From TrEMBL:
Gene3D superfamilies reported in the protein's UniProt record: EF-hand
Coiled-coil spans in chain: none
Organism name: Limosa lapponica baueri
Protein name per its UniProtKB record: Peflin
Major localisation: membrane
InterPro entries: EF-hand-dom_pair (IPR011992), EF_Hand_1_Ca_BS (IPR018247), EF_hand_dom (IPR002048), Peflin/Sorcin_CaBP (IPR051426)
A biological process from GO: COPII vesicle coating
C-alpha cells in the first residue's frame, strides 16, 4: 500500500475520511492506534469514547489483527459511525440527544 500521506486518496476511501486520517495519524505510520483514535474522537467532541471503546472499534475494522487500522479500515469505521449517528438521529425526534426504548418500540420497523 502506498503511504496515505502521499497526498492521493486511495481508491474506495472517502476523501473526507482520508483527510481526517492524515491528521489523526500523528506519528505518520500509515496506521491509527487506539491512542490516536481516542485523541481524534475527543478532539471532535466525542469524549464518551474511552480506550476500551476505541479498541473495540479498531478491532472491528482491523483485518490483520495488529491492534491498529489503515486508511481503508479508518474509512470503513467512519462510515459505520456515520450510519449509527444517522440512525440515532432518526429516532431522536425531539433532538434531545437521547432516545428511549419506548421510542424504538413505537416504530413498526423495529
Amino acid at each position: 500500500m502506498a503511504s496515505p500521506h502521499a497526498g492521493n486518496v486511495p481508491p474506495g476511501v472517502d476523501p473526507e475520511a482520508f483527510s481526517w486520517f492524515q491528521s489523526v495519524d500523528a506519528d505518520h505510520s500509515g496506521y491509527i492506534s487506539v491512542k490516536e483514535l481516542k485523541q481524534a474522537l475527543v478532539n471532535s467532541n466525542w469524549s464518551a469514547f474511552n480506550d476500551e471503546t476505541c479498541l473495540l472499534m479498531i478491532n472491528m475494522f482491523d483485518k490483520t489483527r495488529s491492534g491498529r487500522i489503515d486508511v481503508y479500515g479508518f474509512s470503513a469505521l467512519m462510515r459505520f459511525i456515520q450510519q449509527w449517528k444517522n440512525l440515532f438521529q432518526q429516532y431522536d425526534r425531539d433532538q434531545s440527544g437521547s432516545i428511549s426504548f419506548n421510542e424504538l418500540q413505537q416504530d413498526p420497523a423495529v
